[in-house]
Amino acid sequence: MIQLKVYTSANRGNQQFLDLYATEPIKLNLSVEDITNAEAKSVFSRTFRVPATRNNNQFFKTAFEVE
Fold first, then answer.
1. Between 20 and 30 A from 27 (CA), which of 2, 3, 5, 65?
2. Element (H, E) at 6
């Protein structure tokens, strides 16, 4: 199974691996315009799905219980 490392705190102190679907990898688009300036000038987001595995349920707690 493919896994994604996530951090539960801003200082990267707590990390956990989430399970992903093997048939639906997360696709990233990276581009660099000016390597001398490291400022972030834009925001990028991508939607992806995660399976309701035991490992993911521990991280998301009750997020899968939609009514």
1. 65
2. strand 2-7
